[in-house]
Amino acid sequence: MNASRLVAACVVAVLLVVGGPASLAQAPRPGAPYALLTAESRRTLSAVQSGGRDLLRLDELSDLFELTVREDRRSNALTVTRRDRTIVLSLDQGLASIGGRLVSLPVPPVRDGNRWLVPVDFVARALALIVETRIEVRRASRLIVVGELNVPQVVVRQEQLGAVTRLAFDVSPRAAYTVTQEAGRLLVRFDADAVDASMESAVGGGLAESVRAADANTLAVGLAPHFGTYRASTLPLDAGSIRVVLDLAPAGAPVPSPSDTRPAQPPAVAPEPPVFVSPGAPAVRTIVIDPGHGGDESGATGPGGLLEKNVTLDVARRLRSLIEGRLGLRVLLTRDDDRLVPLDERASIANNNKADVFISVHANVSPRPDSRGAEVFYLSLDAYEGEARRLAEHPPSRSLMTLGGGTREIGLIPWEMAQVRHLPESAVFAQFVEEELRRRVEMSARALQQAPLRVLVGANMPAVLVEMAFISNADQEERLRADDFKTAVTQALYDAVLRYRARIQSGPTPSADPGARGGAALRRTPWP
Amino acid sequence: MAIGVRFVAGTIVVAALVGASSWALVTYVVRPRDAATTDTEGAPAEGRAETPARRITATLHYVAEDGLRLVSVTREVPFGATTAEQAERILEAQLEPPPERLLSAIPSGTTLRGVFVSHTGQAFVDFGPELRSRHPGGSLNEIFTVYCIVSTLTTNLPALRSVQILIDGREADTLAGHVDLRRPLPPSREWLEPPAPQTAARNEP
After folding, report:
1. What's the CA gap between A527 and A84, in Å, rounded?
2. Average per-residue pLDDT in chain B?
3. Dihedral, CA atoms, A262, A265, A271, A273, nearest 10 degrees?
4. Which of A278, A296, A354, A396 is the most buried (most CB within 10 A)?
């Protein structure tokens, strides 16, 4: 007991000696500003350097977040209030109290004339707890992201490979992108709210004269006059990142193979990072395709020995290639090899990756050997009626603390019932799938159905399950083996995604669109 | 006190004698004639000494000739004294080979371990592992299996509001990766009716 007190006393003493007087010894001086991104705007925050640390002006933060600041001389503290929540900031040491919760700060607030300066850590550790939204501080890029924005980091490098200029964009987390050429420049547009871009080497020279911001989420590569053509390729990196490689060739020269993927040289100079933002808009960005069954669980087996798990994976891979290649969307498979993935995990993969559409691919079985045709399913709430109705009428929510500070309003719909609120959109998407399949392949008399299917109920996005054909029918099994059939199914699913994307991007928000409920697909929806 | 005890004991003995006489009268005098008129298939009832030959008419379900829906067929099955017992007798009949031209939605060789009924009208039907291990899969086929069982029980036993399928005494996720079996399922007419006409001509929402 005595020993632990001694250790605690030593720790406090060290904190006071190191964190207290030393940090106040140096006078504040101007530093590079921070950028603050919200869904609506981008703001610049003045920064001041003191003792090797970045400090922000409390009056600027007060304007942005509607804070009231008072100095309490008796207790030698600052109180920072927003609505009914208060931060008490000690002026003696780097400590803040938020509703009884104590957080440490590297330095106490610093007076600069008639202003107060607070360390950047104040934003993430203290302010986030009272503003009820997520705040992320990216120190390296001097960026503060407020709210649920998708802002991937993009690190740009350039190297010269003979006559070819190679630009490498490392994107983390991975984001879909498109490359377009217009007068004198190439535009690399990322599917994100903003990009947090930095240059890890001197960019400019060769065929790329510059790389700079063109738009909120777009980088523009300025092209030299002797530029001829380019090739873009994508390489997966670790931990959900990708590398986009742009090879620029002069007029008349061949473009090198995209398989030549030597990394670019380490950085020589780190210029100011360009940061851009755009408001989020409804869009289909990520699609998760679920190849049914896998591993020890083969699914159905055809009379000729075709395994359902193999044909579902084949079609899922074809569909991924088609969507990625033509639409540039992010496509994930719940399994990309022959392994068993539990049904809960399949929905989790879609949920954790914030998929906008979930498509489960299967092959059907009937006790009748001559049953034939494709069928499309979306969820029926018959089995969940009581719970589902209660959740729809009284969706529960709670304000919870989040990791890294801040609070979020959390919907408390059990994750295993996540599909409940997407049912109208699932019906619309299922109808698109059924119609597109009908144009290309034979349909069952039960072409569009609702059923309490386990893999769909936990999906937190519009979700369908497609039975491509009856593998139990020898003729249909042959169709499932045939390249033209698999291509037709793939094309139909691609076209359905295309239609659904157009609907989302051009129409009203899905949940607020009562017109979506009037289609034939919804006739059997039991509620609301 | 002693007189009171003797009186009660005597009453019980008399009541027991009257009860036994009535049972014998019903069993050996009335029931054989009754059985002769209803037991059309001549199959003896098993293990029910108190009602050895009594049978009821039950509605069973099979996959239709077109493979697109379940159809109902009536059949005589042994009488069960309780809802759970009656459910077992009906399901045992459902597990037998199907009538000509129809197909069973339940894998052959499936065994029934027992039926339990809650006071709220939920039936828990415990099948042997064959229901899962012999199931050939496919969404439609699995739907037919599940709703064959649900429909057969809820159609014949109005006290049952929903049915949960157990495998080998335990709750099951699915039979073959499709239908969610984690909750008791209410009946659905959907699978007993011919499919609704579906055409390509629909207006885009």
Report:
1. 40
2. 80
3. 20
4. A278
What is the CB neighbour count within 10 angstroms for residue A284? 23
Handedness of CA B91, B92, B95, B97 (dihedral sign): negative
Q: How far apart are CA A305 and CA A299, in angstroms?
A: 12
- Determine, for residues B137 and A300 on separate chains, whether the beta-carbon distance falls below 8 Å: yes
Interface with chain B: mutation pick from A296, A334, A371, highest number of B CBs within 10 Å? A371
Asked if A469 reaches chain B (Cβ–Cβ under 8 Å), the answer is no
Tell me the C-alpha distance between A119 and A125, whole Å. Answer: 10
Nearest Cα residue to B147 out of A449, A184, A160, A91: A449
Query: Is A345 buried (19+), middle (13-18) or exposed (0-12) by CB count in 10 A?
Result: middle
A343–B67 C-beta distance less than 8 A: no
Query: Within 10 Å of residue A312's Cβ, how many Cβ atoms?
Result: 26
Per the prediction, chain A carries an average pLDDT of: 80
Q: What is the pTM of this model?
A: 0.55
Distance CA B13, CA B7 (A): 10
Does the beta carbon of B200 lie under 8 angstroms from any beta carbon of chain A? yes
Decide if A503 and B196 are in contact by the 8 Å CB cutoff. Answer: no
**CA proximity to A98, closest of A129, A58, A73, A136:** A129
Of A58, A333, A366, A484, the residue nearest B68 (C-alpha):
A366
For residues B94-105, give the mean pLDDT. 96
What is the C-alpha to C-alpha distance for residues A437 and A496, in angstroms, rounded to an integer? 9
List the one residue out of A197, A152, A186, A151 whose CA is nearest residue A172.
A152
Helices (H) and strands (E) counted in chain B, each on its own, are: 5, 6
pLDDT tens digits, one per residue of A290-319? 999 999 999 999 999 999 999 999 999 999
Beta bridge partners of A180: A187
Phi (first) and psi of residue A192, to 5 degrees: -155, 165
The SS3 assignment for A452 reads coil
Sign of the Cα torsion A378, A332, A467, B146 reads negative
Which of A367, A377, A449 minimises the CB distance to B141?
Answer: A367
Q: Residue A435: list chain B partners with CB under 8 A.
A: 200, 202
* CB-based contact B198 A308, cutoff 8 Å: no
Look up tokens 């059985």; give the residue: B35
Spatial distance between the Cα atoms of A392 and A35, rounded to a whole number of angstroms: 40
Are A497 and A328 in contact by the 8 Å Cβ rule? The answer is: no
B57: pLDDT strictly greater than 60: yes
Q: Are A338 and A441 in contact (CB under 8 A)?
A: no
Place of tokens 């989420």: A217
- Helix A483-506 to helix A308-327 angle, to the nearest 10 degrees? 50
Distance CA A146, CA A128 (A): 9
pLDDT tens readout for residues A51-108: 778 899 999 999 888 899 998 888 888 999 988 888 988 888 888 888 777 788 888 8
- pLDDT, average across residues A41-56: 85
Q: Do A368 and B178 touch (CB under 8 A)?
A: no
Distances (CA, A) of A217 to A196, A204, A355: 9, 20, 20
Condensed to tens digits (0 to 9), the pLDDT of residues B138-153 reads 999 999 999 999 999 9
For the complex shown, is ipTM > 0.90? Answer: no
Residue A385's H or E segment, with its range, is helix A385-393
